[in-house]
Structures are given as C-alpha cells and as structure tokens.
Amino acid sequence: MTLSKHDLAQFDDAYVDSLSDAERHKLCCRLRDDLIEAHDRLNQNSSNSSRPPSSQPPWFSPSDAAEDEVEDKQTGEVEELLKNESDDSLTCDGLSELEEQTSPDKPSNDQKRKAGKQKGAQGYGRTQQLPVTETKIHRASICSGCSEKLDEDADFVARFGHYVLDIEKKSETCFGLQVTNTKHLYGDASCQCGHVTRTKPYRCPKESDWNVELTQWHLVGPLLMALICCLDKRFRMSRRRIKEFLDDWLGIELAVGTINQCIHEMGRAVAPLETQLIEEVSQSGFMHADETSWKERNQPLWLWVLSSITTTVYVIGKRDITTLEKILAKSFSGWLMTDGYGAYRWYKKRLRCWAHLKRKAQGLSESLNKEARSFGKKTLNVLITLIKAIHRVREGPKENLVLKYQELLDEFRVLCELFRGASHEKTRKLAREFLNDWDAIFRILTHPHLPLTNNEAERALRHWVISRRICYGTQNSQGSRVFALLASLIDTCRKRTISPWDYLATVIHERRRGHEAPPIPAPIPA
Predict the structure, then answer these.
(1) Rounded to whole angstroms, what are the CA distances from 129 to 37, 95, 136, 252?
(2) Which of 318, 321, 327 is nearest to 344 (CA)?
(3) What is the pLDDT of residues 433-484, one digit of tens each?
(4) How far apart are CA 501 and CA 338, in angstroms?
(5) What is the Cβ-side half-sphere exposure of residue 67, based on CA atoms within 13 angstroms?
(6) 410-415: long-range contacts (C-beta < 8 A, 24 or more apart)?
(7) 3-state secondary structure of 407
(8) How many CB atoms lie within 10 A of CB 175?
(9) C-beta of residue 62 within 8 angstroms of C-beta of residue 55
(10) pLDDT digit string (tens) for 146-180?
(11) Is the confidence at residue 322, as pLDDT, over 70?
(12) What pLDDT is attached to residue 98?
C-alpha cells in the first residue's frame, strides 16, 4: 500500500479539483494500484493463502469458492468449443455429451459423500474384552400372571444380557476415576402358579423428532455419557479426539459413531427440560439477549441466547422474530437488554447496549471521512458524558439525569436528524439507529441502576463461538437441537453452582428407565 491513512484523509473534493489533469491521472493510478492490492487481500481465504480455516466466517466454505472456479472453467470450455467448432460439426450426440459434462444439476461420480458410515456398508462388532466388575440379575419381582410377589429364591433362567461401561468418581478410599464393566442379565422367573415372567431392558417409545433411541440397552453408562458430553461441549473436543482420550487414559475403546450416539441420546433425554428453562428465564426481572451466526451444514442460521441471573437458554434458528417468539414468552414483563437488531423493537421495556454504540462512534471518530469523523467525535463525547453521570449517580446521591441533561439530549437529537441523510453510509446508519431506538437507548437515564451493556449475553456466547470456529457448526437439525439443549443445561447449572455432569448423569439414568427427567435444582444460596 503506497498511500497512508494520513494521505487519504486529505483527498477531499476540493483537493482533487485543484489538481491538473496530469496530476489527477497519476493520483488515479496510485489509487488503482492500492485498490487492486486491497481486493487481493480481501480475496484471501484458507483455500488460496496461508490463512488458517479459523479465520473464515462460519458461513464460508472452501467448496463454495471451488464450485465457482469449476463453473467458470466449464463455461470457458463451452465457449472455446463453440468458438472453434462450426455449426455442423456439433452433432446431437456431441451436444448431449457436452451438456452431461457441464450440467451443474447432475451429480458427478466423485461427489462428496456425507460423513459417517454409508448405507449398506459392512459393520463391525465390538472386539474389546474387559473384565466384569459386577453382575446384576434383573429378575421379575411380581408375577405378570397371578400378580403375586416372587421370592428371591424363585427359579430364574437367564435368556439374554448386555454389558455397560461406566465410571465411578473418587470416594474416601479411591481417588480419580475408576472404570466399571457391569454385566446385566435378563430372563425368566417361574411362579408357583406355573406362569413364567420375562424381564428385558426398558426402551423408550420412539419419537418422530428424534432418530436416536433412548434405552437401557446401551453400552455406555450414565456418568461415562456425561463425561463424553463434557469433553465435547465444555472442552470442545471432536468425536475422534474423545475416542483417543478414552482409549489412552481410561482404556475404553468406543467407536466414533457410538460417541456421537451418546451425545444425541443425552440431548433427547434433556429435551423435556427446555420448557422449564424457558418458563424460568421468562419469570426473571432482567434478561440479556443476543445472537451470533451459526452454520448447519450449508444453511446459514443463528445461535440465540437469553440469559438471566440463574438461567440461560440457547436456540438455533433463523434470524427473525418467529425464532425469538419461541423462547421469549409474551408473559415476560421484565427488562430486556439487547443490541440494535430490529426484531427486538416490538418489546417496550427494552434497553440498548451502550458498548455497541460507543464502539461505532469510536470507529467513526477515526474515519478518513471528515463528515463521519465529526459526527463520531460529537457522539462519543455525548456518550462519555452520560456514562460518567450514570456512574456518579450509582456511587453517590441520586439526581434526575433526564432533567439535568435534557439540553444536551435535544442538541444531540438535532445532530442525528442532521446526519440521518449523510452521504457516508456508516454515519447515516448510526444517526438513524439513534433515532429509531431513542427511547431504548436513553431509558437508562431514568433507571441508572440497570446495566449499561449486554456483556452478560456476549460472555455467554463467547465459549460457543470458539466451539463454532473449531467444528464449523452442526450437520443437521437434530445436531443443532442437541447442541442448544446441552449448552442451555450446562450454563444454567454453572450459574446455579451445580455440577452439570452429575445432573446430566441423573437425567439419563431416569429417562432410560421411562421416568420423567428430574427438574433442574434451584440455585444454591451463597
């Protein structure tokens, strides 16, 4: 880049008009060279430079750029072929073959397949043999014929069974984690009436919304499943890394598909708790809301968060008011802190995050455009003056900030009206943003005890944004639902100083037996 920010700030209309034609031509050439270099930098991504994949936005896919290059190449080949061949040299067969080669709708033989085991592929059974630490016999306690109680010494014949791998946490005599391999036996118990009652593992009824089974007939036990969810969601490990960790540190060999099934089964187990979470967050007096981009395979979506003092709810969906209405009950009567997204404007008791406004004003104050720089500096001075006044009221005697700074607000509103039609795009947008959200922005002056920023929601999203940059989102709608459900339970338990992993283990244990999920414990008082 040959021109600095100091140089560009001086290139206004008056300066350009003062140059001769030759001087103006030289300046245009220098601007053109800098613009070409800037475009080349903007065009860099993980597929054509040394930039890491994590530097790309979540909706970017290297395959998108590759498809554009292939389409351009195919178009060039067709044009070249049509240019070199005469009209008579292209027969019907030739045109058909050409269309077949260049048709974007026809899948090619090397089309990328979906991740995971392919339909019809050969399966493999479990080969690891671990010593049995305990054997549990599940015999019937009541005869299903005469309804009489069956004694412990009643005849029992084992018909089938399965192993359950689990872990036990440290105790008074044992530190760390201990792996257990329990053998569960089911079979027939004979009654004196002659009826034989057979036991079997419980299987929850199928649900149309879930393609994963919730059953006691599962290799992985509750606490080990909670550990897998911890490694996946809290430590952001991939399925293959989890497999490696379990094998190296616990000596447990699990397939990648089994690990993925455990995470999805946990999501189905906690799904009924979403209603409790939404009810509790809607009953709070103050709520933070925010959203960030999310990618579900090739579909761009958004990760929404609603956070109160004791509850956090996440939902993955479209960025429109319909998604917000699913999680923000109409009965909510508390304060809502948000950013400037228009979907929140229907709510009357809304507050605006001043951190967003201050950053935008700071950016305009550093702009090369004189108009933007002037508006940015004046806006920044107004915000800083009011922020100092709010902190002063919080720490000292109360005073009416609206009455005290009414003249300043009136002057600033006139300024926003003046710049709402500015030629500079960001200046125009910020001025209109203040005018559209005037009441929500300056409502804090009437209630100075309320928060000034939406940092609570942004901090809640930060962990999951890092996870998104690592995993590039989810692969299907069920994966998105599982992600949001587990993230909600984990963050809610953390806010309530409760171990999320013990609670998740309890939930999966009860749900596999056909019971309702235990409610989320109330916060533990400090």
Answers:
(1) 61, 61, 18, 10
(2) 321
(3) 999 999 999 999 999 999 999 999 999 999 999 999 898 899 999 999 999 9
(4) 31
(5) 12
(6) 412/378, 412/379, 412/382, 413/438, 415/375, 415/378, 415/379
(7) helix
(8) 9
(9) no
(10) 888 888 887 889 999 999 999 998 777 778 889 99
(11) yes
(12) 44
Residue 24 one-letter amino acid: R
Q: Are 511 and 329 in contact (CB under 8 A)?
A: no
Whole-number Å distance between alpha carbons of 215 and 123: 21
Q: Say if CB 434 and CB 416 are below 8 A apart.
A: yes
Closest to 368 measured CA to CA, from 11, 34, 24? 11
Helices (H), 340-476: 354-365, 370-395, 401-404, 406-419, 425-436, 438-442, 455-471
Is-contact 285 279, C-beta < 8 A? Answer: no
Give 290-300 pLDDT, tens digit per residue.
999 999 988 99
Helices (H), ranges, 85-155: 92-102
Domain boundaries, the chain: 129-200, 354-445
For residue 211, count CB atoms less than 10 angstroms from its CB and return exposed for 0-12, middle for 13-18, buried for 19 or more: exposed
Cα 402 to Cα 178: distance, rounded to the nearest angstrom: 63
Q: How many helices (H) and strands (E) does the chain have?
A: 19, 9
Q: Which residue has the tokens 């404007």?
A: 345
Q: Give the whole-angstrom CA distance, residue 156 versus residue 191.
A: 10
| Number of other CB atoms surrounding residue 13 within 10 Å | 7
What is the identity of the amino acid at 442? F
Enumerate residues 6+ apart whose C-beta is below 8 A from 476: 296, 297
Query: Does the pLDDT value for residue 97 go beyond 60?
Result: no
Q: What is the mean pLDDT of the chain?
A: 87
E-only strand ranges, 193-261: 196-198
Closest CA to 169 of 214, 238, 234, 230: 230
Q: Could you identify the residue written with the tokens 């600033």?
A: 412
Count CA atoms within 13 Å of residue 440 on its CB side: 26
| Terminal-residue alpha carbon distance, the chain | 57
CA–CA distance, 494 with 48 (Å, rounded to integer)? 42
Query: Residue holding tokens 């016999």?
Result: 137
Instruction: Please provide the DSSP assignment of 281-309 as one string.
Output: HHTSSEEEEEEEEEEETTEEEEEEEEE-S
Contact residues for 425 (Cβ-Cβ < 8 A; gap 6+): none
